TrEMBL record:
PANTHER family: HTH-TYPE TRANSCRIPTIONAL REGULATOR (PTHR30126), HTH-TYPE TRANSCRIPTIONAL REGULATOR CYSL (PTHR30126:SF39). Gene3D superfamilies: 3.40.190.290, Winged helix-like DNA-binding domain superfamily/Winged helix DNA-binding domain. It comes from the Bacteria. GO terms for molecular function: DNA-binding transcription factor activity; transcription cis-regulatory region binding. Keywords: DNA-binding, Transcription, Transcription regulation. InterPro entries: LysR_HTH_N, LysR_subst-bd, WH-like_DNA-bd_sf, WH_DNA-bd_sf. Belongs to the LysR transcriptional regulatory family. This is LysR family transcriptional regulator. Pfam families: HTH_1, LysR_substrate. Residues 1-58 form the HTH lysR-type domain.
């Protein structure tokens, strides 16, 4: 029922590329140009301008992007409300999840949810917590799942489940005999950390700051954007890493990694759902309730 031209425009506006918009929507680049041109003709405005080789939104384009996002949100809500009237759960649900949640928690939940509600079209994008919150604020996703401590103004948060971060090392190497370390020793141990904007990094920084220790004091061997990359690095070096315990279940069972306790320090956090409205849309609420019950 929704206007496909709006979807094309939104894809082009967010990527600032007709080529990438075409790839996302599985249409040709001339088709993107045609749909955007039709919108410009209809509203008698220019939506994009070129500055050299770079595509930029005009003021009218920015206004269109904000309004188009709201319209498509309303269309999806209408589709879901009508499916409920027909006693069916259907519609489109766009999820955004931070890296740890997307890799280790959501896949089995999504498998069960789509089997239970085959009429729901689910898509998921991943990034760090800050990127997921930004996508939600831009209406690029309907529901987010993040792991950060901070709370972004204008967004609303619902508890999913608790999590714990642990210090891990490979069984052999320089620290093979260490069972514990003190917080004060951490700055002298080579560490692999997540990138800026990561919820994991935020939790680590906050916990250590309470002990008077700053991340700037650390011996950071490498910063990586994925937990899988961090684990592979640690397995092949003398560096340690602080990661979610759910991300190393298989490695702990196989003996590829082991936990080194940090004396007197527990790194805990909550995984949370994040939504734009105080009460999530009904399809988002259905997923929240299902995920909590399924886990």
């Amino acid at each position: 029922m929704d206007d496909f031209r709006l979807k094309v425009f939104i894809a082009a506006a967010r990527t600032l590329s007709f080529t990438r918009a075409a790839e996302q929507l599985y249409i040709s680049q001339p088709a993107v140009s045609k749909h955007v041109g039709e919108l410009e003709s209809r509203y008698k405005v220019q939506l994009f301008t070129r500055r050299g080789s770079r595509l930029e939104l005009t003021d009218a384009g920015r206004t269109m992007l904000e309004a188009a996002g709201r319209l498509l949100d309303d269309y999806r809500r209408l589709e879901y409300e009508m499916s409920l009237c027909a006693d069916q759960t259907g519609g489109e649900l766009r999820l955004g999840a931070s890296t740890t949640i997307a890799q280790y928690l959501l896949p089995p939940i999504l498998a069960h949810f789509t089997a239970r509600f085959p009429g729901v079209r689910v898509s998921m994008s991943s990034g760090n917590s800050a990127e997921v919150e930004q996508a939600l604020g831009e209406h690029a996703v309907d529901l987010g799942l993040v792991e950060s401590l901070s709370r972004r103004q204008g967004l609303h948060y619902t508890l999913f489940r608790p999590d714990e971060l642990v210090l891990v090392a490979r069984p052999g190497g320089k620290y093979a005999r260490r069972e514990t370390v003190t917080p004060e020793e951490l700055p002298r141990i080579p560490l692999v950390l997540r990138e800026s904007g990561s919820g994991t990094l935020e939790v680590i920084a906050a916990a250590l700051a309470a002990r008077g220790i700053r991340l700037s004091q650390f011996d950071v061997t490498m910063r990586l954007g994925s937990t899988e990359g961090i684990k592979a690095f640690v397995r092949n070096s003398d560096a340690m890493a602080i990661v979610s315990v759910i991300s190393v279940v298989d490695e702990l069972r196989s003996g590829a990694l082991r936990i080194v306790d940090i004396e007197g320090l527990t790194l805990s956090r909550d995984f949370v759902f994040v939504h734009a409205e105080a009460e999530p849309a009904r399809l988002a609420r259905r997923f929240i309730d299902f995920a909590r019950a399924d886990f």
